[in-house]
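Known limitations

Files may contain more than one protein. Parsers should not assume a single record per file. Below, a two-record file is shown to illustrate correct handling: read the sequence, read the token line, then continue until end of file.
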Amino acid sequence: MTEVLFVRHGLPVNGVADPGLAGDGMIQAKRLAAWLAAEQVDALATSPLRRARETAAVLAAELGFVPVEIPDLREWEPHEPNEVYTPVEQMAADDPRARAAVEGRYNDFVPELDQPAFIARAHDCLEQLFERWPSGRVVAVGHGGIINAILAGVIGTRDLFWFNAGYTSVSRVEKLASGRIVVHSANETGHLLGSRS
């Protein structure tokens, strides 16, 4: 059996291409690292994008693993090389993407996305993780969109994007000995509210 803990990266810096973590994002990652230290973790994977790699580096320092880059954990594509990233919370109120997120119309957040290709990549990503780690608990740091798509594929929802993943939230997926894949949780954020004591 393999359990994958999908982690969304911490809050990134606003207004730059391929941003790293903002100060609050670093704090979020440190809180998650302390929380996960109480669990048996066997491996750490990350998206190649900087905000995910920096989140994974914080976890690695606590958990003692070298993160393995998995290209398919990246967010939706394509991006222009110098495209500026703006977190949804910092978008202008009249931005159609911000309105879509506030109203729960997550599929409208990226209307130009090639959804069939993204769904296929999400499926392949999950299969890669299970193939690389056929047993144990793996923390995989990625992005809200790809985590949505992976979980949507497992539960069979018609909506590709169906929840707003919090920064450093944890969503748990397990492949059972029978081969069946199940979702145990989505969007856990207890580590941002307290500690295990």
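...continuing to the second record:
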Amino acid sequence: MTPSVDVLNSLSFAGATLSPLFLQDPRTGSAGALFEALSLLNADEATAEWPLADKTEAQEGLDLIVTGLKASRATEADGAFCAEDKLVDEYRRLFIGPAQKPAPPWGSVYTDREQVIFGESTLRLRSWMRQHGIARLADDRMPDDHIGLMLSLLATLTEERPELVEEYLSEHLLPWAPHYLGLLEVCAEHPFYKGLALLTKATLKGAQDELSLVVIEPRFYR
């Protein structure tokens, strides 16, 4: 079943907005304009406009995001946003390494008995994408079940293959993402990433409720 246009638009906006925040270094990545815009938000106004999520949870998440970015803003000579070291260090601790990540951003780490990347759930997602002729969003070195890539793919599907959105959510993203996002919220030491985890989890829960999706939770090994 294809979701309504309103729901598709909401998922497209949420996926496209949230995905770069998981994928891009706040200082050296390509999402500088997004970090800039978020640092200037009025959290109350943004909460009123944010789709799908419970408003109380959205408010909490956006408050943390905006507060965290404002506290981490180092203004360059041209006035552009430049992230301070604490925000950059936290991004690299959570998503890059080299130390062991407290909350790895790949689904198979949680659903595979061996807790590895490129596990069974990754391969199942790749197979599903090939079956439906969906182009990969990263090269072979990046597992497709990275939370940022999967949110980006969600946004792409709403535009190009809306009939697949519900299947993608219920079989590939929702079974593990809330578990991971809950762990990320606990492990994050910077308010920005706590807020990002909370807002993303609330948005996905809202999408599940809006679409009345039945999601079978797998066994988690982490």
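Parsers that stop after the first record will miss the second one. For reference, the second record is described as follows. The chain has eleven helices and no strands.
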